[in-house]
Input
Amino acid sequence: MSTEKTTRGARKLRKGVVASKMGAKSVVVVVSYRERHPVYGKVVTRSKKYHAHDEDDSAKVGDTVTIMETRPLSATKRWRIVK
Output
């Protein structure tokens, strides 16, 4: 047997704004990013919604939060609030 300890891979981090509270310990976080349009070259703002777990149930709508990728916590939640 090997005595080496396996290290976890780096988890993805995103920073976004709480868009809504879904229920107990659950929030929807909107992450916006800017990218160049592939054809026209104009910089456009895109956004994506993430369902996140809020263990302390302290995040309010409009708060800026950092979320981290985690194991599946429910049918849609794959992220949790770090701070």
Summary: Residues 32 and 70 are 20 Å apart (CA to CA). Residues 13-81 form a domain with the OB fold (Dihydrolipoamide Acetyltransferase, E2P) fold (CATH 2.40.50.140). The mean pLDDT is 93.
